[in-house]
Design brief:
2 domains; alpha+beta; 11 helices; globular; 15 strands
């Protein structure tokens, strides 16, 4: 089983220069190979393979001697990543590869010949780089990916392989359904509600001031570069606050439950609502569900997503009566059939849990709403929910 830990590294000035050259060579080779592939495809109708990229490296090193200063396997890793990027594109998992810029995040990959020392990491052609290794996994160190953020901080992602098989997934134990929202980030089927930290909203004024100062700086000047780094630092704090909250909450849910069931949300479609786009993007629901999935699978637990068109909010979890109209401003409603009073999000979480357990019991991925197929819009029912509480100041997304 493979495990990854990301650590902070502190290269010296000479090592920073060497890393900058390596970043530049890797970026240049990516852009050159991508352009070469595009031109080859236009001329012949066929692209280049990983081996086709690597075959051109020896002649390029003679033409550009500075390219030989970079570790050879770093450039070969770029060829591998580019070929895999095209595979992901043609199989519909990613967009078409883009050209890299020196102003963005920089990274290089060392596939082997990397050693972990006491408080340091030894990289080929770089030497021993001081590192704050706060966590070590059992097994051999396989690969290391060195990155530099837009704020100028250096990190190393260490991949360990202990040779053990992946744990078997078990569905026996406590199950929980999780519904996400805006005011409350997550609502569980047992009635727990976790407030949304809203990291972007809390730092929005500070970010606005920093961006205004950046816009007033002359393009190409050193002060503009400094102002850009300050803006990047604010964004970094926002992202770190969001990830810290998501990691802690996802770990809590996985530790306390054996089966975690969530709703498969179409976030890309939801952010098309310009009234809620910023608030939805600030939540980071996709990253949260990704963390739930890999942590559950790593611990041998069950993670399941139900269809996004399953009417979790509009269905009474007691008598299964489905109402037709349930606006977002209705946070509590009463079932017209059994007169049970529901909290909108808790009721949705319970329905998500029950639907997930039903799918697991049947051993099929088909939901009660027909999978991920959009339901046909026929004649609407005249049954409506009876609102118990109206006029919520901030609407939530549920179901």
């Amino acid at each position: 089983m493979r495990n990854v830990v990301k650590v902070r590294i502190y290269p010296t000035f000479e090592q920073q220069v060497a890393l900058s050259k390596a970043f530049g060579c890797a970026r240049w080779w990516w852009n050159y190979a991508l352009n070469l592939n595009n031109e080859t495809y236009k001329a012949t109708g066929k692209g280049l393979s990983r081996q086709g990229y690597n075959d051109r490296l020896p002649n390029l090193k003679k033409e550009f001697p500075w390219l030989a200063e970079c570790y050879s396997q770093v450039l070969q890793s770029v060829s591998l990543n580019l070929s895999q990027a095209f595979i992901n594109f043609f199989e519909g998992r990613a967009q078409y590869p883009n050209f890299k810029s020196k102003h963005g995040k920089q990274s290089i990959h060392y596939p082997q010949h990397v050693k972990r020392l006491d408080g340091a990491i030894k990289l080929p052609k770089i030497g021993e780089v001081k590192a704050k290794i706060h966590r070590i996994f059992d097994g051999n160190l396989k690969t290391v990916t060195v990155t530099m953020s837009k704020t100028g901080k250096y990190y190393a992602s260490l991949l360990f392989d202990d040779g053990l098989p992946e744990p078997e997934i078990s569905g026996q134990g406590k199950a929980i359904g999780v519904d996400v929202g805006l005011t409350h980030f997550a609502i569980t089927s047992d009635g727990s509600k976790f407030d949304n930290p809203k990291p972007l909203k809390k730092r929005e004024k500070n970010l606005k001031r920093k961006q205004q100062k950046l816009s007033r700086k002359q393009k190409g000047s050193k002060r503009r570069a400094k102002a850009r780094r300050i803006v990047a630092q604010v964004h970094e704090r926002i992202a770190n606050t969001r990830k810290d909250f998501q990691h802690k909450l996802s770990r809590k849910l996985v530790n306390e439950n054996q089966v975690v069931i969530v709703e498969n949300l179409a976030v890309k479609n939801m952010v098309k609502n310009h009234n809620l786009a910023k608030a939805i993007s600030d939540c980071g629901w996709s990253e949260f569900t990704r963390q739930l999935k890999y942590k559950a699978e790593k611990d041998g637990k069950t993670y399941l997503e139900i269809g996004r068109f399953f009417p979790s909010s509009k269905t009474c979890h007691v008598c299964l009566t489905q109402v037709d109209s349930l606006p977002l401003d209705v946070r509590s409603w009463e079932c017209p059939n059994c007169q049970t009073k529901h909290d909108r999000n808790v009721n949705a979480a319970i329905n998500i849990r029950d639907e997930g357990l039903r799918i697991l019991a049947l051993g099929t991925s088909a939901t009660a709403q027909g999978g991920n197929v959009r339901p046909k819009r026929g004649r609407k029912s005249s049954v409506e929910a009876v609102a118990v509480e109206l006029g919520s100041p901030v609407p939530l997304w549920a179901g």
